[in-house]
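assembly run, all chains below
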Amino acid sequence: MIHARGLVKRFGELVAVDGIDLDVRRGEAFGFLGPNGAGKSSTMRMIGCVSPVTDGTLRILGQDPASHGAQIRARLGVVPQQDTLDFELTVRENVLIYGRYFGLSRRELKPRIDELLDFVQLTERAGDKVEPLSGGMKRRLTIARSLVNDPDLLLLDEPTTGLDPQARHVVWDRLFRLKQQGKTFVVTTHYMDEAEQLCDRLVVMDHGSIVAEGSPWNLIQRYATREVVEVRFEDERPQNGVFERAAERIEELPDRVLLYTQDGDATAAAIADRGLPPHSTLIRRSTLEDVFLHLTGRTLVD
Amino acid sequence: MDGVLQPLRAYEHWLAQYKRVWRGTIGTSLVNPVLYVTALGVGLGTIVDQTQNPPGGVPYLDYVAPGLLAAAAMQTATIESSWPVMAAIKWSRVYHAMIATPLTERDAFLGHQLFVITRVFTSAAAYLAIITAFGAVDSWWAIFVVPAAVLIGTAFSMPMAALAAAIEEDRTFVTIFRFLIVPMFLFSGTFFPVTQLPLAFELIAYLTPIWHGVELCRMLTLGTLELWPALGHAAYLLAWTVVGFELARRSYRRRLLG
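ok done. output:
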């Protein structure tokens, strides 16, 4: 569905995407994970055929965006990072007008819109203006709109950023159903739980490059240990020697120490034996977040 | 075929939106002309007509009416291509929705301009009906002030859209209205002949598209049409349209396809 080799996007001096290789297959849910400014959105815009490729090869649905942009876009469904809804129009009109951009007739759009609004649970709001809708509803409307042309490939750029937990779960639920229907989609996110929930395979991007690739589980295995022990101390922190060889990897943060280990209980016990008892000890499974922070660092971007 | 159909699909968006707000625009399209023509054509005109040497040698109502119509076309076109263009790029981001579909940035631009033309066309037709009712029209040629107004409209809306797609701050629009549009409205032959101006300003007036627009409209409603001057005015307006079109196409491309 997507094939990229040595894909580059430059804005003047700034290199936003620095030679990435990608292959997304039919029926796959593919994720771009990365901090702000990693090049996710620039990549998505190139895939969406609204940003010319600076260098390298890109094929979407077997076609070249440079020569067949409109034909490709006719088969894409795009959920952009910032809403592009028309606030003056009603929910229904928003989908209708968007469908018209694809050249679909009003007659064929009518039943299609009913179906889509039902799918995103907005049937009752069909006649309302968009403006007063909640963030989650606007997001769902954008998703409904992106499906109006029955796309072969769905592009979702940070689909749940800014939504409250309830709204996020409703959006995820809808996206999960699309996945079950066999839709191919590409998601960018900086939420690890989102990536774990939705993606079959993902890449971690940092500074315009791909730093890791695999399934969520696969990445956790490769870049993190099975478990993590988080220990906090009240005032004084024990001397360095205390943690030595207690875990495979140790990360000291201002407020706590992270011990990456295969066996959390054994590590916790070992620490407790060696001196200062921690104020609190938490043993948990590794998550994608551990992988992400390991790969992209803890320094704040922007 | 898509080159024609696709801009029409973008145009549908603006029509759908206008359907929700058209009542608000009736004020400017119908009430304003009546007020202006009454105050200036009838009110001020009564005084002007008592002078020895009225401008154009015709009743002042007949003189000022086509000028007002031309200036209204300028204003409608400029306003419709300023904030709405910036909104479609930055605020509602409607253009971004369009170009995510088979529509191109060119279709988004053309569709919007088609809507601006529609607004100018209907306002000018209403204006013509009103000044005709006031008895300010002396010739059947007046029918052609509607297409002439459209040409005035494009001569302003194309460069304005080019600018609106290039700038970041909407304060620039206020500056443009204050220092360009309002002076053009007042001093480009709308209310009095530009020969009354000091020479330097008179020469500047000849460079403005609105002076050519006013002259063209006045020839048509007064029935004083002369072929070559009329063609010259139309050609000058067309030149602004064409250059503006090309600039706008580029600035849309630069802005929307990053």
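The mean pLDDT of chain B is 95.

The interface with chain A takes residues 2, 5, 9-10, 12-13, 16-17, 20-21, 92-94, 96-104, 256-258 of chain B (CB under 8 Å).

not gonna interpret more than that til we talk
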